[in-house]
Design a protein that fits this description.
Number of domains: 2
Number of helices: 4
Pfam families: PEP-CTERM
Shape: elongated
Organism: Akkermansia muciniphila (strain ATCC BAA-835 / DSM 22959 / JCM 33894 / BCRC 81048 / CCUG 64013 / CIP 107961 / Muc)
Mean pLDDT: 79
Distance between the termini: 26 Å
Number of strands: 11
Protein name: Ice-binding protein C-terminal domain-containing protein
Oligomer: single chain
Helix content: 10-25%
Strand content: 35-45%
InterPro entries: Ice-binding_C (IPR013424)
Length: 246
């Protein structure tokens, strides 16, 4: 037979367990992360954005979201940057000026809201190399990922460099991944990436190489905001606790 005191103790135990269960149920949606995968590869063909002044992150910031742009240094070569569906074609020739800049392709993109982690992944393969001076030619491929504030200021949140690309790349695609620093996500209004090819030898002419970059994708995890149901459970727990105190 339950006495008033033992009955009160049992009610407290039941109440405590109920509140604990409600708290756990409320936290489940908050700790469960869902993955995302976004294809950033070109969707059409052509070339855009001829320039002889190189590339800066601010140039990418001015682009429309989802639209690829490219440029190259002063050169007698044509088609150094090209786009086909699913393929970014980026070459570098020794006839291009040897000042900083090289050839580039850039894209502005959006980051999913609530992204807790993200990486940029892609494949790259050498498609051709040419020239009588090829033995003395070398180059590098670079990718920088930026976060942009509303005023256009840029912050590098991920970077990748492949030195000696002529030697290290083959016609078999190599896969790479860049981990992105999302610690300043709240400060960024948009994001951008730049693939850059640059000569690292000092030839004036007579050699070059081209590469295809494919399967460009943004992968990561999103932690959702607390669901309405979770907030409702917390509210119910607070109501039960208030009644108990009364």
């Amino acid at each position: 037979m339950l006495t008033p005191d033992s009955k009160s103790d049992m009610e407290r135990i039941v109440m405590r367990k109920t509140l604990c269960l409600l708290a756990v149920l409320a936290l489940v949606p908050m700790v469960h992360a869902s993955s995302f995968s976004i294809d950033l590869s070109p969707t059409g063909s052509g070339t855009t954005g001829v320039s002889s002044s190189g590339i800066t992150p601010q140039n990418v910031f001015g682009y429309n979201v989802g639209e690829w742009h490219g440029t190259w240094e002063s050169s007698s070569l044509s088609g150094q940057v090209g786009f086909d569906e699913g393929v970014l074609r980026l070459q570098i020739g020794a006839v291009a000026s040897n000042n900083a800049g090289g050839n580039f392709a850039g894209l502005k993109f959006d980051m999913p809201s609530g992204a807790a982690s993200a990486s940029l992944q892609f494949d790259i393969a050498k498609t051709s190399s040419w020239g009588g001076s090829l033995g003395n030619f070398e180059c590098k491929y670079i990718c920088n990922v930026y976060g942009f504030s509303d005023d256009g200021e840029s912050t590098v949140i991920g970077t990748w460099t492949l030195e000696n690309a002529k030697t290290n790349l083959t016609n078999t695609p190599s896969s790479f991944s860049i981990s992105l620093d999302l610690s300043g996500t709240d400060e960024y209004a948009s994001y951008g990436l730049i693939f850059n090819s640059m000569e690292t030898s000092t030839l004036g002419a007579g050699a070059g190489m081209a590469a295809d970059i494919t399967n460009i994708r943004l992968l990561g995890e999103v932690v959702p905001e607390p669901a309405t149901a979770s907030l409702g459970l917390l509210g119910l727990g607070a109501l039960l606790l208030r009644r108990r105190r009364n």
